[in-house]
Write a structure and sequence with these properties.
about 130 residues; about 50% strand
Length: about 130
Amino acid sequence: MEEPNHFLAEVEFGNPKTKDCRNFGICRIHAIGKTKYNNKESCQGCTTIAKITVFNRHHVAMDFLQSHLPAHVYQKYFSTNAFLVNEDYQYTSEDGTLNFTIPKGRYPIRKKSRLFKVIFKVVGSRFVP
């Protein structure tokens, strides 16, 4: 059994196929502590910090603290029981050791106290230790 791969990241919500990340889904993921991130096309105020866990080749979990979600982000993305992804999102780490694709769809939001967990079924996952 593979060991889970954890990292903290800045997650920007929205559709990756739109210039300013409109609509629903994951627009960008930027691992914290790797390099300075500065994207002028980002959706202002639509980002938060998440703990991301790749715990097998088919699932990626993202944990979000409600206290780190701006009110408008909570209302738009987390106020229902499902996290909506309008378009496939492909992630590749800067060093190329991790990649996965989150297919478009609806993913249950597990709420426990002030922690929100979304487990995404992913395709094409690869982790090179």
